[in-house]
Hints:
Largest sheet of chain B: 5 strands, mixed
Strand content of chain A: under 5%
Number of strands of chain B: 39
Number of helices of chain A: 11
Distance between the termini of chain A: 41 Å
Radius of gyration of chain B: 30 Å
Mean pLDDT of chain B: 82
Strand order of the largest sheet of chain B: 2-1-5-3-4
Helix content of chain A: over 70%
Oligomer: heterodimer
Order of helices and strands of chain A: HHHHHHHHHHH
Largest interface: A-B, 26 and 29 residues
Number of strands of chain A: 0
Low-confidence stretches of chain B: 1-11, 315-319, 562-566, 740-750
Low-confidence stretches of chain A: 168-176
Amino acid sequence: MLxxxxxxxxxxxxxAIFVAxxxxxxxxxxxxxxxxxxxxxxxxxxxxxxxxxxxxxxLLSFRKKVRTMHLGRAYYWMQGHVWFGLLSYPIILYHAxxxxxxxxxxxxxxxxxxxxxxxxxxxxxxxxIPTRMLRDVPAETIYEQIDHVLEQLRSEAAALIxxxxxxxxxEAFDLEVVPAGATAVIAPQRAxxxxxxxxxxxxxxxxxxxxxxxxxxxxxATEQSSNATFAATRQELPVQFHQTLDDLxxxxxxxRQLERQRCLHHWLHGWLLLHVPLSFALMILATVxxxxxxxxxxxxx
Amino acid sequence: xxxxxxxxxxxxxxxTLWIDGQSVSVPESTTIWEAARQxxxxxxxxxHKEDLNPVAVCRACVVDVEDNGSGRAEPLLAASCSRPCAxxxxxxxxxPRCQDARKTLIELLLAEHPRPCRRHAENHDCxxxxxxxxxxxxxxxxxxxxxxxxxDFSNFSIAIDxxxxxxxxxxxxxxSDVAHNYVIGRMGKGSLTSISFDxxxxxxxxxxxxCGWCMISCPTGAITYGGGAQxxxxxxxxxxxxxxxxxxxxxQIPLFKNINIQFLRRSxxxxxxxxxxxxEVICHQGEFGDTAFYIDDGxxxxxxxxxxxxxxxxxxxxLFKRVQSLLLGRDDDHRRGDDQRRFVPIxxxxxxLDFRKPIAxxxxxxxxxxxxxxxxxxxxxxxxxxxxxxxxxxxxxxVLDILRRQRDFRKKMDEKYRQRALDNHLxxxxxxxxLPDDFLDYLRQRVELxxxxxxxxxxxxxxxxxxxxxVRMGHVKVFQSFADGQGMVMSYLSRxxxxxxxxxxxxxxxxxxxxxxxxVEVVRIDRTExxxxxxxxxxxxxxxxQEAAARQQxxxxxxxxxxxxxxxxxxxxxLYQAQSLLVLDLEKCTRCDECVRACAQAHDGITRLVRxxxxxxxxxxxxxxxxxxxxxxxxxxxxxxxxxxxxLQIIIEDHCIGCHNCANQCPYxxxxxxxxxxxxxxxxxxxxxxxxxxxxxxxxxxDDQCLGENDDPSCVYACPHDAAHRVxxxxxxxxxxxxxxxxxxxxxxx
Lengths: 301, 750
């Protein structure tokens, strides 16, 4: 979710709630001889408010399952999820009196901290990575289609190389192109060598690079080294092979972009692998805690 | 006159005149020549032909006007081919004055005509020489032409002899008005005048497309068949079929007896007689074919071999249950887009098929596949022989075209339509569903059945509205011009849709220009009969008024949407056409695919959008229906299953036969075919069988469930990052080029 001017209203409301909660907490904490307690009425009030916020944030995952029901736009749910979710942490801290308590509550609080931190990470990456993806990956495709596109790139590259490698020596001689102004007669052997060189380059560097995974240390792995490699190869190849080499370079560039897309996509969504299961665990344990506390604790003390 | 058959008078006031003492009653504006023909009196003519506009150049058809209807005799002879009748007119075709004039004219023409000309030598049917024989002209008294005007054999199948040409202009009109090729013209002056091709090129080097219309129309041996044309009828899979008939054999078949033998020679192989046994398939629905079928003997079953239902994909069997495809009919699952039609239009004279049981049996004398043959549409239904020994004449488009222009054939087909199909066709229009049988009987002989060639105008915006039209075949483009000089295609109408009611109901002037996109046939109900219908049936009037008001409102809304944006890539990519683009802000989009999932959830598990497409700066234009201003996808559906509703949404109905036509028509790949495999009860055998097929799917702007305060479609409603927007082409242009703040999503209908 990109935080923009439309979030101002939400931020204002949350800040106001936070300020009000803090303003109420300070005298409450100061007046209690034994310090703030979760079982006290103010503590329970904070628990109720904080839990309600946590529940609302948690319900986003269910809201996303019923996408077409008239339950309000998903964008507003997401705004509520982020801001109320963030606000729920200090509210729950006020409920707990800044004590993590026993075994269960400690686990809950650490889970909660992890959920909040992963959520903040998620919001931060969403501010930055979509724009990076837009700029770095002009050839972006749908993530699930990356392997299919790679297969197409491999076919395309193979189709480019095939006519070069099956060219006959005589034909190579006939097709020798002498650059304008050149005086030397290029020996026919050079064309054959050029085809072999290009084929070898393709086999050695390009083909392995177009596989689903490539080594980080590959010569074509970065734009800089790829450009250098292609430039060096271009210098050694006869002119008639330059177009094919340029086409291969385009394919390699696109391949690199797709890898970049894959990497950025993992960053953009990877935090969910932590955030979602932890939040489920958090809600389960928080429910257990609430039930246990209301049943067995001394309310109002 | 309306329509493309110029000698067919418009229904209206009937007048009475006398021709050679015989009383004749005809509609007003009928020509004298036509009135005489109806009375059985043959007036000779050389430049006039049934399907051509009269030009009165030969003057062989002159008649004596003894009383022009006002009690006055006219001093000059009148050319009957172009002179309209008047009430109480008295005409004589055989006065000495007429006969002398005619004889002199023919003698003058014969003096310069090679005798016998090529046509008369081969077939003994040169119209000029036959007329000369009839008038007893054996040797013209006039001096023949001293020089030859030359020949042209450059075309592989048509031979030109300029010396035999009488400059009747038939070939010029046939090439321009009938075939719309505009190749033949005239050149030269005086006795050196002759026909020419393009800029006086040899015919074989001109833009002539060898349609043969000039040859069919020429009355003499000036344009004849030169040999060399080869034709072969193939089935819908491209395989050669049957034994071709030669010209003489075709001529023996009563159906073709009035067709020019030269044309038949040129079209040898274009007609095949096939015999089918019971159960043999004649054609399959959805396939493209270039032949029409005439049932000469026997019976056939016509049916739609596709379930009348839509595909719903469910994964609700649990976490590990596989996604299952079901077919649900409109009784089980009503969708707002369904129009609850009772009949499905098909390409046969036998009439439309009942939606609930789309099968019909037809017998001898029926024509099937006319639209498929003429307009290159997919077959609308499957046809199977119902009896052993069913004889079918399979013919190519050129033969069908000629046949359709034969008066007798046309009359026969029209009569069949009136008796068999008109009732269902009228009742298939929702507003006319209550028409009683007696009123249909009243209308049956009063409606006109009119044909239009591709591109021909049916009615023009601003004209006085004089008729209501129901489309029988083909597609009609409805185009509205605005005061600022801009214009917009409002709709494409196909079989069972109607137009012309707005002008008749409100103010009397046409509100749009309607023209034929391909070969169109309409049922024309004259203003008088239409008003009679409204007078007798107030409930129909009410429904029509409601529908007319809704159409006008929809047209206003469409017109009110921003107009064309003529700028570079917007034109190249067709974005100026779009009225509803799905645009994704890639700086906000986290590629979560919630839009795609929401679309699938809203549409029976089948997404109608792909999150891929053109990119402009930070925006991605997703592949999803654009609600184009000119909806090309509507053109060509053989069963009228795809429509545009008033809020721009495109709807594909349950009786889609999966022919791929709309998917192929969409230039942007926004219509997809969804495969299904379900158990289905065969209409023919009654047995259950597993049926695999496809149905077309398209974004319908969530017609059933507009969501949120702006009636947003699901893709926009479900986006958690405010990245998805529906905008029109103009707003997107503002955003992209002008850099302005994006306009908020337009309301899709209110």
